[in-house]
Amino acid sequence: MSIFSCYTNKNTDIEVHLKKIREESSVHYSESPFNIVWELESLSPNTINNIKSEEIKEVLKKALKTYGDNGIKWQVENTIVHCNF
To answer: How confident is the model at residue 31, as a pLDDT?
Structure first.
């Protein structure tokens, strides 16, 4: 399980617990496309300043797709990120 802490401009902490679905995710960097499949385990809090959980999840999906497998410092070519949430 991966745990991410996100901070809003209102200094609100959002804790996100994600699980990489290993059976559906790529194992070797030579695979093309390199697939990563995430499942959301928990999101706390699920609303912030009238922002609903669906909006928070959409921002999270965009962040995960940008992050890829190892972040901006080392991108894996042709990575596709799937979010099961």
So the answer is: 96
